[in-house]
């Protein structure tokens, strides 16, 4: 049986900055900026903000309402591994999976689903943004 104490917290990437306290040759600086431009996290610090949180019990109940097995498995990864990352490759599947709850779900599932879909929409608009969900016990 799954322990239901604790919470699930979703953080969203809102900005990145480069630690510039270290002197760096120009060629290395260009490689670093190129890496940032293509989305690699070489020398880049991600600034994550809390975007959504719910109790672990509430999260498990929310996931039990999903009819899409692939989406449920993705979201349940946080229960198994302690954290998951949701990026542009997951937005379509997850938006579709949570849409019926956002449209017709009961409280609090409707509000959680709407908020979650808005976070996914942010990723669609800016693919460099991602979500990290973590189980806090």
TrEMBL record:
InterPro entries: Formate_DH_maturation_HycH
Recorded superkingdom: Bacteria
Originating organism: Citrobacter amalonaticus
Stated name of the protein: Formate hydrogenlyase maturation protein HycH
Stored Pfam families: HycH
Entry's Gene Ontology molecular function annotations: lyase activity
Alphabetized UniProt keyword annotations: Lyase
């Amino acid at each position: 049986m799954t322990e239901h104490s604790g919470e699930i917290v979703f953080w969203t990437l809102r900005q990145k900055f480069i630690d510039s306290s270290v002197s760096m040759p120009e060629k290395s600086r260009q490689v670093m900026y190129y890496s940032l431009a293509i989305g690699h996290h070489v020398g880049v610090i991600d600034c994550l903000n809390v975007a959504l949180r719910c109790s672990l019990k509430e999260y498990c109940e929310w996931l039990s309402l999903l009819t899409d097995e692939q989406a449920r498995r993705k979201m349940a990864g946080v229960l198994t591994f302690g954290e998951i990352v949701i990026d542009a490759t997951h937005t379509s599947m997850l938006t579709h999976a949570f849409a019926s709850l956002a449209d017709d779900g009961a409280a609090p599932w409707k509000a959680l689903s709407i908020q979650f879909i808005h976070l996914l929409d942010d990723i669609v608009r800016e693919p460099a943004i991602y979500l990290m969900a973590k189980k806090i016990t």
